[in-house]
Amino acid sequence: MNYECFEVTIEDSVAHIKLNRPEKRNSMNPAFWRELPEIIEDIDENVKARAIVISSTGPHFSAGMDLAAFSSKEPKTDKEARDMKIRHGASFYRSALNTQHTFNSIENCRIPVLAAIQGGCIGGGLDMITACDMRYASEDAFFTIFEVNIGMTADVGTFPRLVRQIPEGMVRELAYTGRNMMAKEAKEVGLINQVYPDQASMIEDVMRIAKEIASKPPLAVYGCKRMINYSHDHSTADSLDYIAIWNASMMQIPEMQEAMQANSEKRQGEFVELPPLKKNSSIP
Hints:
This protein is an alpha/beta fold. Helix content is 49%, strand content 14%.
């Protein structure tokens, strides 16, 4: 399928989703918010891959929200201005929920999502990568909570996710100042897993990591992601209880035996795929 904002390829059980509007610095227009969850959910629901890599094209990963694409026409009368102001609040709330759904689809996806970032990762771009499981960057990458610079508060996922990933004081500094955080600093505070000299070496290694993940038992990987996400918002006792219940109902002895045998024989394991999801079904 052809997309306005993305190029999608699948090889060796790894789906590679590329932001593909470099001439617009991969800013997020209305099509972006519609297409990304469609792509993620299609891959997950139809079991098209075991890992996903999100990367970008051009000098910047993403300049964030394409504000020009969402701008409204100027009111011509005072009444029209009042009507637009009343409608704007409700419309903005609905729009925020829709954009939040786009990045929630990354976090809710059953399979791991890896982000490979070059150049600017600004505003909505930072929102997006915080929803990913792992993040990797080239040396020229930088990260900006840009919303304060345009009189907004970030509302698509940066704060609830970022405060779990780096120290709260750093989140506050970035949010209040709107400054750039370079890749080296991002790795030091724990936002980035690894920094690479350039985009090419980054993509090569991130694809290697994704293929390694894809070689593992899919149900076990899904269980790991589910447990890590659950543990974010629950006590240790609740998380341990949930993990025990999960393993009691989900753990498959044949898969464990195949994993151990494949490992001892130094070969690729032959594992059962995750079951396809019915459209609009809830994820357990």
